[in-house]
Amino acid sequence: MNKKAILAVSFGTTYPETREKTIGATEKKISEEFPDYDVFRAFTSTIVRKRIYKNEGIKVDSIREALDKLKAQGYEEVYLQSLHIIPGIEYQLVQNAIDNYSPQFEKLVATPPLLDKFADYEQLVNFLEKQSAYLPSGKAILWMGHGTAHSAFTTYACLDHMLAGTKSYVGAVESYPDVHDEIKRLKHAKVEKVYMQPLMMVAGNHAHNDMASDQPNSWKTILKENDIVGHPVLKGLGEYEEIQEMFIAKLRTTIERG
């Protein structure tokens, strides 16, 4: 009987509480849904892995380290479960691992990220719209995406456009549309208060510092300077069962296809 594993791959976070509520919770659900597979963890961020080891004494593997261990332990069938939101720079590392390690396993396959096909966008937009549907006039949710220099930066503008006419708005920290673009839209809609949430797997460094802090360049501060109250909600996407189910559905489809 061949040994089978699922390697859950994410960027990672140095914030232990959100790590377990999001990544840990998703990994637990994967274990429950696929009892015939052993589930392992890998983080793509070198900085995050180093800081976790320094601050917590916990060694988290890179994709390469994890695959080397799985090979040494005799695993023959391995699925890389991407816990990335977009097919950007970090997801490229998953694809590179498939290219480099495929000859060493009988089967080595990766799932796509959360947003891969048009149906994924529709599903996420429906989810985001539902989160803000209950809000009264003058209030909205402003979702903070990570942003990227990769061509996948268009994801955020696409989501923002698809959400037009709702009470959910999407901006990005490191690309387009930025918070100033969203402020123009918020003012046009006469929004006076927004609940800021990370459009990321975790509520980590960006959520705490770039979104929720009182630092001069934080979204909270910039919104305040533009007469909009920004209330931070430090809850990563990975905490929501609907998002966990989206990832698991991709894994189930990938396994069924072989």
Note the topology:
Elements: E1 3-10, H1 16-33, E2 38-43, H2 46-56, H3 63-72, E3 75-82, H4 89-101, E4 107-110, H5 118-132, E5 139-145, H6 154-162, E6 168-172, H7 179-188, E7 193-198, H8 205-211, H9 219-225, E8 229-232, H10 241-257
Parallel strand pairs: 1-2, 1-3, 3-4, 5-6, 5-7, 7-8
Mean pLDDT: 96
Distance between the termini: 17 Å
- Compressed to H and E, one letter per element, the order equals EHEHHEHEHEHEHEHHEH
Lateral strand order in the biggest sheet:
2-1-3-4
CATH topology of the largest domain: Rossmann fold
By secondary-structure content and strand pairing, the structural class works out as alpha/beta
**Overall morphology:** elongated
At CATH level 2, the architecture of the largest domain is 3-Layer(aba) Sandwich
The biggest sheet amounts to: 4 strands, parallel
Number of helices: 10
β-strand amount: 15-25%
Enzyme class: lyase
InterPro entries: Anaerobic_Co-chelatase
EC number: 4.99.1.-
Binding site for Co(2+): 146, 174, 206
Would you summarize the structure shown here?
Keywords: Cobalt, Lyase, Metal-binding. The protein is of the alpha/beta class.
